[in-house]
Amino acid sequence: MAMLEPVRQSQVRVLYGDTDAGGVVYNATYLRYFEQGRGEFMRECGLPYKLLEDRGFILPLVESYLRYKAPARYDDLLLIETCLADLTPFSCRFHCQIRNTEDNRLLVKGFTSHASINRQGKLTRLPDDVLAVLGEYLGKP
């Protein structure tokens, strides 16, 4: 998964409740961390998810891929790196990677794809202003 500029960064500290019986971060928890990265990315673009939802748009997850490289453990401070990788009028795809801040070790990399739907669950074109703002991140006018 190529990380396209600009890459937005955020951090999360692993809670005890994020770990499994083996003492490592439970695999599905990384999807929550990806969500945090996406949320921060959108917020920095001036398009927080809440603003989209207030306008009647929802971006449900329709596809995800995670490749686990190394474990994270309780109290580790993690760096979440997120970029927009693809954009269509009806969907978007984010690439994400998570590193341990202590040694910069890559822990997980992957992507999430999201459809644009309205409150009735119908596939809906993203507003032109949203496409314009996000398109700038991909060099699309």
How would you sum up this structure, described in words?
The chain has helices at residues 29-44, 49-54, 128-136; strands at 8-13, 57-58, 61-68, 77-88, 91-100, 106-115, 117-118. The protein is globular, with a radius of gyration of 16 Å. The chain starts with 7 loop residues before the first strand and ends in a 5-residue tail after the last helix. With 141 residues, the chain is an alpha+beta fold. The model has no long low-confidence stretch (mean pLDDT 95). The strands form 2 sheets. A 5-stranded antiparallel beta sheet has the order 1-4-5-6-3. A two-stranded antiparallel sheet has the order 2-7. The protein has one domain (8-136): Thiol Ester Dehydrase, Chain A. A hairpin with a 5-residue loop joins strand 5 and strand 6 (106-115). The relative contact order is 0.24.
pLDDT < 50 runs, ≥5 residues:
none
The top level CATH class name: Alpha Beta
- Give me the count of strands: 7
Taking all Cα atoms into account, the compactness measure Rg is: 16 Å
- Give helix % range: 10-25%
Number of separate structural domains: 1
